[in-house]
Amino acid sequence: MPAEDHGTTRGYNRWRCKCGPCKAAGTRQRAERKEAKRAAYHGPVSIKRYRYRINPEPAVEEGLRRTLGSCRFVYNSYIALARSAHAVGAPHPDGYAAAKLLVTEARKAEATAWLTDVPSAVLRSAVSDAATAYENYFSSCRGARKGARIGAPKFRKRGHRQAARFPENAFSIRGGWQDTGPGGGRLRLSKIGDIRVNWHRPLPGYPSAATIIYEPDGTWWVSFIVRVPVDPPKTPTRQPRTAGIDLGTEDFAALVYDDGTREKVAAPKRYQKAEDSLRRADNNLSRKKPGSKNYEKARRARARAHRRVANLREDHARQLASKLTRENQAVCVETLNITGMVSSGHKKRNKSIHDAGWRQFLRFLEEACDRKGVTLVKAPRYLPSTQVCSICGVNSGPKPLEIRDWVCPGCGTHLDRDYNAAVNILVAGPATCGRDMSLRLAAAVPDEAESHRSEALVKASRRRKRVRRP
To answer: Closest Cα partner for 256 from 316, 333, 315?
Structure first.
């Protein structure tokens, strides 16, 4: 190497010099490139994930499996190190020191020299994930972390969902992130090779990390972390209408709009419809010998059946959330304690709640409202929407779930349980005009239990036509 190239980026990139000045020059070059990418986005940005299906070739798939196994080994090694330190009363291992011991030193040892076949950045990411899992566990124990208590990290198993995170310097896309349209460039992973990606939609910005995911059903995916600029609020082009939503199990949602129209969305009950096929898949798996090829085939078939149910449930939730945000300027929803509802001990009811997927739908609805500039109003958790009459406001007390319609003791109106709750949720939102809105909806629909025109049309369309006999 010429003397003038010593301590420069050319000495590090071209001549592969590993001295201190050349390494420092390479580090500065990577930092400058990263800052140049991020400097293209001025103003606030949001971090989003974009997931794509990949189809690795056999040689590349072997490298991916080796990478996943190495990351699982390093992750489990950190958990074992943390447990052994806790057993002898030693302090919890630091993430940086553990990465130096489990990655840098392990790659030099003879017993674990096979770790050199995997990029060190990916192994360090696995150690960082394990350290973050312990930090979240400690924060949950102290009460500093919001939400339900989380348990201590556990060892990762081979048959479950596996993932490996590639940092920004361990992968690249041919042609850059701009070449991610249909038929775009391939994904190049360090020490693995090129992978064909199904670019069903282009990336909106450069990805800062790529996570390779292997699902239990045998499919491969890649998930990119992308910094997307926050667009300014859009001018509403939809009609000024507000919707109130009451969620249920028999009917997935009862929708009431401030213009007087209302409708019910039937619950798809995906798991209940596929329960027989899932049971057959479980029985087929139980008859196979663990470790055999037939056992692996049956396990993948069972995973595919469960994946299909999950995909159908997600598709229904996304389509309904898209419809509500496309047709309304404000949406009022109830605040549900789903965790408390499923802990009641009623097995059949809990299964119906899990099959409905309320939490998933509410998350998709919130994301769609944030993306489209729609106002999302959350009613108070302890709002007695099913107890208060939406017309006169009399609270007649709690009612069993078997009662789907009732007569108000104050005004004598025949009320539908779901529609009445949806009206109360709609009135509770600040986007409506309160009591005047309730009276206007009551005037538009005098007999609530038998007033839904679209539902009556659906019932009429499902009636069997009488066949005239000659």
So the answer is: 333
Give the distance, in angstroms, between the CA of residue 351 and the centroid of all CA atoms in the same chain: 20
Nearest to 169 by CA among 119, 117, 227: 119
For CA atoms 292, 293, 295, 299, the dihedral sign is: positive
- 3 state SS of 378: strand
The angle subtended at Cα 202 by Cα 374 and Cα 228, nearest 5°, is 50
E-strand stretches of 184-316: 187-189, 193-197, 207-214, 220-229, 242-247, 251-257, 262-266
Residue 155 tokens, joined: 């060892």
CA proximity to 299, closest of 311, 313, 284, 316: 284
Please give the torsion angle defined by the CA atoms of residues 163, 166, 172 and 178, in that order, rounded to the nearest 10 degrees.
70
* Whole-Å CA distances, 389 to 32, 392, 420: 64, 6, 7
* pLDDT tens track, the chain, 470 positions: 777 777 788 787 777 787 888 888 888 887 777 777 766 666 677 889 999 999 999 999 999 999 999 999 999 999 999 999 999 999 999 888 999 999 999 999 999 999 999 999 999 999 999 999 999 999 999 988 887 788 999 999 887 789 999 998 899 999 888 899 888 999 999 999 999 999 999 998 889 899 999 999 999 999 999 988 877 766 666 678 889 999 988 889 999 988 888 899 999 999 999 999 999 999 999 999 998 999 999 999 999 999 999 999 999 999 999 999 988 888 999 888 888 787 776 778 888 888 888 999 999 999 998 888 888 998 888 888 888 887 777 888 888 888 888 888 878 778 888 888 888 888 876 544 444 555 556 544 444 443 333 343 333 334 444 444 44
> How many CB atoms lie under 10 A from the CB of residue 252?
21
